[in-house]
Amino acid sequence: MNTDLSQWLIQALPYEVFVLNREGSIVYANDMFLNKLGYDAKDLNTLTIFNINSTVTKVSWAEHWEHLKEVGTDNFKEAHQNKKGKLYQVEVFAQFFSNNGNDWICALAQDITKSSFYNYLMESTEHMAKVGGWKLNLQDGSLIVTSEALKIFETKDKNDLLPGKVIHHFMEADRLKKLLSAALQKGTAYDEVLVIKGAQGNKKYLRCVAEPILKGKKVFKILGAYQDVTEQKTFETRLQLFRKIINNAEDLIYVYNREGKLLLYSNSVSTKLGFTKKELDGFTIYDLDPKITPEWWEGHFDEIVEKGVLRFEWLVGRKDGTKFPVDISANHIFYDGEDLNCAVIRDVSERKKRDVELFQALEEIKSLKTQLENENEYLKDEINQEINFGHIICQSKEYQQVLKKVDQVAPTDTTVLITGESGTGKELLARAIHENSSRKNRPLIKINAATLPSELIESELFGHKKGAFTGAVEDKIGKFKLADGGTIFLDEIGELPLSLQPKLLRFLQEGEFDELGSNKTIKVDIRVIAATNRDLEKMVADGKFRVDLYYRLNVFPIYNIPLRERKDDIPVLAKYFLEKYSNKAGKAFRRLSKKTITALMNYNYPGNIRELENLIERAVIIENGTTLNPGSWIPIPEIPAQIEDFKSLEAVQREHILNALKQTNWRVSGPKGAASILEVKDKTLFAKMKRLGIERQTNFR
Ligand SMILES: Nc1ncnc2c1ncn2[C@@H]1O[C@H](COP(=O)(O)OP(=O)(O)OP(=O)(O)O)[C@@H](O)[C@H]1O
């Protein structure tokens, strides 16, 4: 090769060519070298390796020289610096020459800045975006894949990514197979997210994209990419899950900003409150709760921001205007540069209802407990009184008639008035009525108006509140409340003070009363049985008993006949009492002698059965043996029609006139008047009435 040709060749090569001597001086360089580094040919006298590569030192150059001398050639990458100081990357091919005792290194350098930077950039970007590319040439079947694509499939063999093989990485292999064959055969592009299984069995979501390139109608290349979107997908799935949780929540979930605008809400807000989503989308807190003012909201929002979370009770309104109680937990969230209020609202209607029910039940239990305690107290007192009820002894036809009435009225709720002399067994009848009624499992409460001081009767009957009067140091439950559900037995009703009669009347009419010192009306369900040994009709006539009350009580009267009018009962009663007191006293009496019975039958018993009972009790104490014979204890029969039994003339007249007036309904004059019946002049009768103090009791009739 001649010198010109070799010179031309060196200049024409697409490389920077330069020759260096042992000292590192550049003794020759082609134009490309000079141009690239910004030097002239005349600079070659002074230019050294140290000018173009600032990292080379004298020592490293000497080592490099020796190394090349030994190995002959070498290939490496370096950074060259141009005259202005700018660096660029080069790939160098260096060769050691020796000629006539002169040694040189000849180097060929190529600027690789562009290719290496873009490669680096591409690789880093692919890695950051987790995108691996591939290109399939259908002409020769060759496949090019990027290193990131291999990483995604966790393989080193690019052939693993050939269509026939890559499908096996996928969990839905058939899906990808279909997509690939459509791309290969018809040139159909695709962009889908599919799942592969990683080496550790972990799921990876891949976005698979393919872009076929066609020549005419024929597919000749396919460009594609796989992107690992597992993170996004997991995030997305989690987001969907959170959304689902929020939307399925029973609780109402709202997110508001400071202006009160509703930014987000759970489905329950719409379903529970009755607003459409369209309505809610434009809502503010003020639309949802018109009670809220901007000042309140501002203060509330500040408090949430300050405290992080606030819990409180509230009433939430539905679209139809109804409201329900809720527990609210309002949480502060700082999101996207903005303070938000995320409120979780729980409907507590059921709980509140249960609380009220529980409270009511507790109150009921409390009141039942007090009632039971009171009943218990009462019953204890009753037991101490040793009343012998349940043993109604009867043989006479007369008394059987009385008991028949008891049988008839017992099952009803009708008010009963038992009249009769003292000791005839009125209380026994009252108990028999109660025991044979549906109320028998509830108490029979007895109150005797004759045994109580009149000022205490009202509180005893109706109860009082603490402080109702001086001495009322605590609440007292009245007998009426105590008897709720059962029967009240008002013994000696004739003794009830006139002042209290209206209150009893109100109870009989309405079934309600007020406790003393309370304006709360109490309603109870009670059957009333009253008893008296007094002539109530006369008391009415005398203005001592209210006529309206009398009629209310006298719904079903039972007259308890005196013992002298049912003498057939004397033998059986006497035997019953003999056994009772004999047993009690530990005596041996078994029977009464005929004489005793005759003697007992001859007596009239003004004290009725109680008197007979007392007699036998006394006899058992005095006498001994198995048969009770007459003794000092036998009462002497009364002498009938004693002088003191006669009424005065005035009393007889008074009674006679009153009877006539009752007949005429207090009409004195006229053909149907009392004067006409009594065959006296009107004037005479008026005068007599005045003298005898007969006055119509207009307030009761
Ligand atoms: N048929 C009867 N069989 C057995 N004992 C009776 C009978 N009738 C009354 N007694 C008894 O006679 C006594 C007096 O009866 P009770 O107290 O019921 O009379 P009362 O009419 O209510 O008297 P008072 O009007 O004085 O209150 C009681 O011990 C009662 O048990």
UniProtKB/TrEMBL annotation:
GO biological process per UniProt: regulation of DNA-templated transcription
Domain Sigma-54 factor interaction residues, every copy: 392-621
InterPro entries assigned to the protein according to its UniProt record, in alphabetical order: AAA+_ATPase, AAA_lid_NorR, P-loop_NTPase, PAS, PAS-assoc_C, PAS-like_dom_sf, Sigma_54_int, Sigma_54_int_dom_ATP-bd_1
PROSITE patterns to which the protein is assigned, alphabetical: PAC, PAS, SIGMA54_INTERACT_1, SIGMA54_INTERACT_2, SIGMA54_INTERACT_3, SIGMA54_INTERACT_4
UniProt superkingdom: Bacteria
PAC domain boundaries: 189-241
PAS domain boundaries: 9-44, 238-282
Signal peptide as annotated in the record: none
GO MF term set: ATP binding; DNA binding
SUPFAM superfamilies, alphabetized: P-loop containing nucleoside triphosphate hydrolases, PYP-like sensor domain (PAS domain)
Coiled-coil residue spans: 358-385
Record's keyword terms, sorted: ATP-binding, Coiled coil, DNA-binding, Nucleotide-binding, Transcription, Transcription regulation
Keyword Transcription: yes
Protein name listed in UniProt: PAS domain S-box protein
Organism of this sequence: Poritiphilus flavus
